[in-house]
Amino acid sequence: MKVIAAGAALLTNVVLARLLHVDEYGRYAVALSWLNVLAIGSLLGWDRVVLREIPVLRQRGDWGAIRGLLTASTRHVVGAGIVVGLVFLASYRVVTSGLTMLAVIAAAALPLPALRSVYQSAVQGLGRVTMAQVPDLILRPFAFLVLLTCAGILMKGHVTAGMALVLYAATLMLVVVVTRSLIGPIQAGDVAAIPADSSWHRHSFQLFVYGALTTLNSHVDVLVVGGMSGPKAAAVFNVAANCATIISLPLFAFNAALAPKVARLYAESNLSAIQREVSRTTMMATALAAPVTAAFLFAGLPILRLFGPNYPAGDRTLAILSIGQFINVATGSVGLLLVMTGYELVAARFLGGVLVVKCVAMIAGVRLMGIEGAAAASACAVVAWNLLLHNVVLKKLNIRARLSIPRE
């Protein structure tokens, strides 16, 4: 499914880049990054709470607590999304002395990414790992591609960034509805009371901090490049970054199955089993990532030509980002291990420090070398963060997550 999703995402980006003028595509990329960054305030870490707690509650047979957790998480993310959207619009109006259509669309769509993440985590935690991925990996990209194609035909190729963002929000709504239907009734007759256990709220805040930094780390690149060099540079950088992300898809795919398993095994204090699972995951993910990395390093130029005449300028940017993503895969699921075992604040502290240094380095890199300088700063930050977290995992859990031969 990750391979299919990667192909669909690549095709969608090609269609977007060709339907939208390069400046419009850059505005769309920046607006989408803002949507994902602002969604942090709506999610508040509840997706990771759900993913970590449901496997444990399911093992105990505490179905009422599961229903209560889902009720609490849904209520919190929708309410937070509305508040964050209103605050964003008010702030945007003060700063820019007006509102743009892209800002209004992004604010209105804020609760959708959060609900998608919460419901997807719930389905994963209930043991239906594969089905949890279907709406977001298969349904969303193909629905978005169909809507874009129809819009391009109806508008005779004159698609704007605002239209593209509305269509993206529509596909998010579809994913939310379908994913929620996959949860179904937990247990007939159970009372969906919201538990008074304050630890869920405490963990949600801690995971919110980690999730906020993770999401900001993923999207700050485009925001910095777009803010300093304009929408055209943001468009080129965004295409290169999206391509490089494909390298990490095998690790993300394995992590979807690994996360609830780590939570359950850690609750059983079975660290040796976690080590075996992590070693196998890293080895398989690295083997799958290697040929994709080679393709981007040695055939990046013809790949970028698929997006249009403006995008081959990102050839070296793609190569730099690809090296960083490959090291990310070879280092293993270090962030996931810390989150699933309760060390999310430790991971957040390291990520926060790396993020500050990354932003400073990217600003300097853009001034000195343009988008290639930004790519170098981003890749170095990925490597530094993964190496730091690997040492933390080794110290806290005595687990080696990097590429190694699994020990039986």
Quick synopsis:
This protein has 17 helices and no strands. With 408 residues, the chain is mainly α. It folds into 2 domains: 1-190, no CATH class; 199-408, no CATH class.
Features:
17 helices; mainly alpha; 0% strand; 408 residues
Which helices and strands occur, and which strands form pairs?
Layout: H1 2-19, H2 22-43, H3 46-60, H4 63-96, H5 101-108, H6 111-125, H7 129-154, H8 161-183, H9 198-229, H10 231-245, H11 249-267, H12 271-298, H13 300-305, H14 315-331, H15 334-340, H16 344-369, H17 371-397
Low-confidence stretches: 188-198
What letter string, H or E per element, gives the SSE order?
Answer: HHHHHHHHHHHHHHHHH
N/C terminus separation: 29 Å
- In helices, the fraction of residues equals over 70%
Beta percentage is under 5%
Total discrete domains: 2
Structural class of the helices, strands and pairings?
mainly alpha
Strand count: 0
Q: In angstroms, what is the radius of gyration?
A: 21 Å
Major sheet, described briefly? none
Based on CA inertia axes, which overall geometry fits?
globular
Number of helices: 17
